[in-house]
Amino acid sequence: xxxxxxxxxxxxxxxxxxxxxxxxxxxxxxxxxxxxxxxxxxxxxxxxxxxxxxxxxxxxxxxxxxxxxxxxxxxxxxxxxxxxxxxxxxxxxxxxxxxxxxxxxxxxxxxxxxxxxxxxxxxxxxxxxxxxxxxxxxxxxxxxxxxxxxxxxxxxxxxxxxxxxxxxxxxxxxxxxxxxxxxxxxxxxxxxxxxxxxxxxxxxxxxxxxxxxxxxxxxxxxxxxxxxxxxxxxxxxxxxxxxxxxxxxxxxxxxxxxxxxxxxxxxxxxxxxxxxxxxxxxxxxxxxxxxxxxxxxxxxxxxxxxxxxxxxxxxxxxxxxxxxxxxxxxxxxxxxxxxxxxxxxxxxxxxxxxxxxxxxxxxxxxxxxxxxxxxxxxxxxxxxxxxxxxxxxxxxxxxxxxxxxxxxxxxxxxxxxxxxx
Length: 421
Ligand SMILES: Nc1ncnc2c1ncn2[C@@H]1O[C@H](COP(=O)(O)OP(=O)(O)OP(=O)(O)O)[C@@H](O)[C@H]1O
Ligand SMILES: [Mg+2]
Known about the structure:
Residues 71-153 form a coiled coil. This protein has helices spanning 4-9, 12-19, 33-40, 58-63, 67-127, 132-179, 183-195, 226-235, 237-244, 299-303, 305-320, 360-364, 397-400, 405-416, and strands at 26-30, 200-203, 262-267, 276-282, 285-291, 329-335, 341-348, 375-377. The protein is an alpha+beta fold.
């Protein structure tokens, strides 16, 4: 368990000033309580003031394809129309035949009905002497039916009232949704996007909406517009954690959310996933490092393992050690082509943080770790296959459940036995 203060120390706005020379350029924008209310509101929608960016203007669109394409397109269209007409004629003929058949059937049925009516009249004469009890029963049944009809009427009326209530409530909600409008925030965001050459990575106090990459125009963490940013923040379950559950793991929890929320906009860089590492610190000592992308085997990392370990260790001693307020924490770094180290993020030393190639149990077991030796763990050829937890938000559940070699073997066995449904 960790303290509330330790979690607060990991907020971006808490550490950025101290480490700004060693991290990605970023701007911090304070968020109003109305904006937080908008983020917490059910449903993914944009404030009334936000417009989708015009990515394709009409004249750009018509530039696609030349005249030959256009002629081909027209010919193909005409062929399609001719085929459709032929099909329609065939259908009409079929319908006419069906109608004729129906008429014949009607005729036969009518004749049969006439015969039946004659028989009925004969029977009716025979039954004239039926007893009164039957009539009474009929009356009773009629009465029952009337009652049922009335009940149905009441049910329908109730349903109608409920529908009306829903419609009215939705109208009120729509009205409230239209009341969200943040023109000055939008302007600030647009200015930062321009400053950072068109692409930024958004984040709240702790978290980046990586699970909502599907909603951005780039399909990645990079956002090029206000609508990308708002929609990814609103669609993200990770952001929901920042908004409502940031202190759930704290032994001294006194609040549900921090006093202030900020929107962090970081300049976007096309980072190589192989060059990201997560570092684990206990009692201000770095003792374990994991490949950040723990799903892929990068053979070249093994060749340079010692160089990278030394680089990270030196960077930690020079820049981070004793300068970050927590005793225990994790930090993520990126190593550039020129072997410079940059901080990506800090995080709490707690089970809520992904331990990647380690298990939390072993990380917390102090006896396991040699005081002076740091372990850099990489994916090797024999490491059982893992999927990135983020894939949960991209693929069907069955795929996500194939998280280790045992699960995959089980899947294969079931499939072979034909038991997979
Ligand atoms: N400025 C950036 N440019 C490019 N990619 C970025 C940038 N910032 C973050 N990323 C990518 O997004 C990932 C997550 O970033 P970050 O650690 O800030 O978010 P997070 O929500 O704290 O994620 P996690 O919980 O996994 O630590 C990074 O590992 C990196 O791959
Ligand atoms: Mg992080």
